[in-house]
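User: Can you predict the 3D structure for this chain?
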Amino acid sequence: MSSDQRNVLAGMVAAAVFSVAFFEVVFRMTDIGLNPHVAIGISIRLEYALKCEVFAALCMLAGVAKIANRRFFIPEAIEGAPAPSIEIDQRYLQNTMEQLVLALVAHLALVTIVAPESIRAVAVLVMLFVIGRITFWFGYHRSGPARAFGFGATF
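Assistant: Here is the predicted structure, written as structure tokens:
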């Protein structure tokens, strides 16, 4: 196994351990005050999830804003030409879009099947998503293998 492969593996394992610990701690510390014996309609569950997803979508907005800002200051990029200095940000944005679509579908499905007092799991998962995207982006600017933690935490 190469050194890069070991670094990716270490980042993924660290992300898995962090994600499980983070989820357990935050989920146990939060309570949205729902009576477990009261039914919550699907529309309210979906509304809750979509409100949470706004924070996940901000990760995409940040990528779009960063690229737009960089393009403005790079003469060849303002015309839409490839610019190596924004390539990582473009890859971040593409990966974030892919991850966001998967997360959105999973979170919407999750709130429809869990017990009422557990819908807050979506909020915790969105927090993990945001942490994952931030660490992925910063890691990617350091090196390819350094993005592994962020990818693992997002996934």
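The chain has six helices and no strands. The two ends are 23 Å apart (CA to CA).
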